[in-house]
Design goal:
By secondary structure, the protein is α/β, with parallel strands linked by helices. It is built from 5 helices and 12 strands. It is globular and about 45 Å long.
Length: 213
Amino acid sequence: MKILLIGASGNIGQRILKEALDKGYDVTAVQRDSKALTVTHPHLTVSTGDLLNEKELPELLKGYDVIISSISPAGGLTPELFKKANQNLIKALHGLDTRVIIVGGAGSTEISPGLRLMNSPVMDQLPAEWKPAIFMHAEVLDLYKNSGLNWTYFSPASHIAAGERTGKYRLGTTNMIFDANGDSKISYEDYAVALVDEIKNKKFIKQQFCIGY
């Protein structure tokens, strides 16, 4: 199984990389700046690439079983460039029998039947500068829904941060997962466990899914 991981140096990307390598996968990590990734491993190849470079993408994406995109509007891209990067990825993947797994946003998950987080009063409590990225994540989800690709979009809990790798979590589809205290939380580490497990499990083909404790 050969994996291409785009954005391996970010908070989530670096955990996905570790989890995939620990599980024995061969991983090629693509970075806009390859020097940003200092990890070395016998099953890791680090290369330079950019989803905004349309000409190089077809060659960059060839030969992989699974492509994981861990880029985000918070990773040095504006929301508009984040959308463009995903449009380029979708275009380049047409005609390839390759699965793509997207590290998504939580805003598109429902906090109650028919009510997405991004359309709820919760948004009034968030900093204004966060909102364009939240809405753009949802637009990108729609791009994949209409792409015809073999896609999976993985939404985190409402609150995701560095923490413990417990391997214990709950999965859902479009409904946000809350714990007994009414909180929606997950660690980067457990998010990565679930994403890498989905490569083998294939439970959410052409679906959005989400995670929480």
